[in-house]
Amino acid sequence: MDTTSAPSREQLRQAPKVLLHDHLDGGLRPRTVVELADSTGYDGLPTTDVDELGQWFADAADSGSLEKYLETFAHTCGVMQTEDALARVAAEAVEDLADDGVVYAELRYAPELFVERGLSLDAVVKAVTDGVTEGERKARAKGRGIRARQLLCAMRQHARASEIAELTVRHRDTGVAGFDIAGPEAGYPPTRNLDAFEYMRSNNGHFTIHAGEAFGLASIWEAIQHCGAERLGHGVRIADDLKISADGEVQLGRLASFVRDTRIPLELCPSSNVQTGAAPSIAEHPFGLLAKLRFRVTVNTDNRLMSGCSMSSEFAALVDAFGYDWADLQWFTINAMKSAFLDFDQRLDVINNVIKPGYAGLMA
Ligand SMILES: O=c1[nH]cnc2c1ncn2[C@H]1C[C@H](O)[C@@H](CO)O1
Ligand SMILES: [Zn+2]
Question: What is the ipTM of this complex?
Answer without folding.
Answer: 0.99
